[in-house]
Amino acid sequence: MKRVFFITIACCFFIAKSIGQQTPAKENNPNAPEITFEETVHDFGTIPLKGEAECEFIFTNTGKEPLIIQNCQSTCGCTVPTCPKDKPVKPGEKGTIKVKYTTTNVPVPFNKQFMVYSNAKNSPVTVTIKGEIAQETASAK
Question: Which of 80, 82, 105, 114 could hold 98 in an S-S bridge, CB 3.0 to 4.6 Å?
Answer without folding.
Answer: 82
